[in-house]
Fold Peptidase C1A papain C-terminal domain-containing protein.
Amino acid sequence: MKGESLTLTCTIAIAVFLITLSSTLSFCLALHETPQVEPAIFQVTDENLIPNIPTLNRKFSRNFIHKEFQVFIEKYDKKYSTKEEHMHRLGIFAKNLARAAEHQALDPTAVHGVTQFSDLSEEEFERLYTGVKGGAAAAPRLFDGVGSEAEKLEVDGLPESFDWREKGAVTEVKTQGACGSCWAFSTTGVIEGANFIATGKLLNLSEQQLVDCDHMCDTREKSACDDGCGGGLMTNAYKYLIEAGGLEEESTYPYTGKRDECKFKPDKVAVKVVNFTNIPIDENQVAANLVLRGPLAIGLNAVFMQTYIGGVSCPLICGKRWLNHGVLLVGYGAKGFSILRLGNQPYWIIKNSWGKRWGENGYYRLCRGHGMCGMNTMVSAVATQVY
Ligand SMILES: *[C@@H]1O[C@H](CO)[C@@H](O)[C@H](O)[C@H]1NC(C)=O
Ligand SMILES: *[C@@H]1O[C@H](CO)[C@@H](O)[C@H](O)[C@H]1NC(C)=O
């Protein structure tokens, strides 16, 4: 480990790389894997389970692509100003249909298909959401000296399934927009939860304060600094908040999705952060900490999230060292039934910040126990007051 760290940019830009890699790999896998069922049923809209994609290399018919593009435009209320733009988007959309089919083959327990991102090219995704600093090679454990490593907790007797949403510790799913601010949403999420547990009150806290005001850098990787829509790290944000004196509510410092001057007012602070801990990579410890302390901030590799529709995502290959997205772990379940594979998978429940229309009402389920997509390598909790 070269101490090289990364800044979470909330993008699947890095995905570009992995998709290239995974397409190659998926091809290899397809060669020696003889699936009992057709590799995929490709869900295109919420209601229709159409069509079957018999092989990975299937070419979609023009008619099919046009029809699906029309459905997409209506569903997501897309507006293209010129005919040229329309045709350009259609071309990208067609490519993304093929990518979704690849993801489906690699991740058969989830459903992949058209999402609101289906008219964006990989490059645009990178431009709109990116700002990777410190390179793509994330250190697998991003401990940075401040805060401390969580003590080992007892893991026997943990509930079979657990969900902080049912206990009222989780705010509504938010929308980061075309801004690499996932790290700020992950940070507010973990503080909202900790504050709820400490006070019994659920507050919407301000991501915009972090986007505008937090420039904190990682102590080890000096170039990994919080940078508004250009990315950041949750642990940096905790340090900023400890120094700044706390975090305002959404209502006094609302989200705009653009970096602006810092308008933080110390007298508007709603929650103070006093400490934070990094959770060990052991997923049982992650579960124990989740139950004891509340929702946890995590980083993961979001490559499969661009095309995710629902189900338990359990990809055959998902880089663990390519963390590029910050999200909030809110619970776990014992068995997620997957109709596609007739299989059960224990899973994590993850709150994302891409609005409620993405995934399962804004949530992602990722299989548990395999360090999937690096979800166990950057896990943190905060303390919001001294007891
Ligand atoms: C948080 O904000 C959302 C969107 O404005 C709102 O629907 C929700 O009720 C708020 N939640 C709390 C706990 O204030
Ligand atoms: C932060 O937490 C660690 C571990 O729980 C503890 O040792 C340390 O004293 C705490 N620091 C503060 C300032 O509360």
User: Anything to note?
Assistant: The longest helix spans residues 83-106. The two ends are 36 Å apart (CA to CA). The pocket of 2-acetamido-2-deoxy-beta-D-glucopyranose (ligand 1) is lined by residues 171-172, 202, 204 (CB under 6 Å). DSSP finds eight helices and ten strands in the chain.
